[in-house]
Amino acid sequence: MGFAAYLYLLCTHPNEFRSLIQYKLWHEAKRDITAQREHETSGWDRESMRKCWEFLDMTSRSFSAVIKELEGDMARMVCMFYLVLRGLDTIEDDMTIPDEKKQVLLRSFHEKLSTPGWTFTESGPNEKDRLLLVEFDHVVTEMGLLKPEYREVITDICQKMQTGMADYAHRASLVGSYDPHSGLPKPSPYLENIAEYDLYCHYVAGLVGEGLSRLFAASGKEVAWLGEQLTLSNSMGLLLQKTNILRDLREDVDQGRYFWPREFWGIHQGGEKSRPPGKGRMVRLCYSRRPRSCSRPCWSCHPKRRQHTRRESHVCTFCHDP
């Protein structure tokens, strides 16, 4: 991070800035992926993998450091998993891509992972991670160098996630034209209730937890049955995603994305629940209506509970530090 990035973080997220400075000053890294002795597992001696590590630093503040400290080839494996899903998420988030094109891109994204040289240059100019897609061929190259069992897990999770993202992206594209009284069988563009909210969070984050557990199990560093702990893995992802939704609520509303269930903000509409209120009021209503059933902490992913299923300390650190 450059000086401007630190200054921006200080102004917008002072608590995170304090934690980052503490981490930078007193945390002692357990490995250096650039060291000669680490090249065999980190891939630092390859230009394409160096570019992937650069993309990891560019796209993630909270996960980059802990990913790099995973032992052996687990760091490279998780780095690739993160970049694949970040690329997919960048397409889903881009409100400048027409729904027709976005549907095709999302539903076929897993195929791009084995398409040499594939890149995407049509992201909106303000998409912060657009460069990852512009140079996605580096990710494709490194995906081909992973062990087959790792590629299988990453591709499978990507395919599951892209399906859910595409479904919800299509619904979101209907916000401007939605009329519940038209009699047309259009799906609602909003998340209607807690069940839909949880399902969306499962697609975009719970599957990440599942993929990580399966990758850790496939590496042999963790017990094989860990990859089958779907409820535990899903809970970890849901907790992180719901935290992010609360943090980014105003930004999402300003851009026409509504992740908060309509059953909560709709009750303030005087009987008319078809459309959200004005942006500022929408945010205030969402923050004033945070029922325990919707933003509830996921008890099953509490660090102490997760540690009972982990036998590697660096995996425990990776799971609970971010």
From TrEMBL:
Pfam families given in the database record? SQS_PSY (PF00494)
- PANTHER family xref list: FARNESYL-DIPHOSPHATE FARNESYLTRANSFERASE (PTHR11626), SQUALENE SYNTHASE (PTHR11626:SF2)
Lineage, highest ranks first: Eukaryota, Fungi, Dikarya, Basidiomycota, Agaricomycotina
Tell me a GO biological process for this protein: ergosterol biosynthetic process
What name does UniProt use for this protein? Answer: Farnesyl-diphosphate farnesyltransferase
Q: Which GO terms describe its cellular component?
A: endoplasmic reticulum membrane
Among its keywords, does the record have Transferase? yes
Give the source's domain of life in one word. Answer: Eukaryota
Its source organism is Rhizoctonia solani AG-3 Rhs1AP
Q: Which GO terms describe its molecular function?
A: squalene synthase [NAD(P)H] activity
| Keyword Ribosomal protein listed | no
Which UniProt keywords are given for this protein, alphabetically ordered?
Transferase
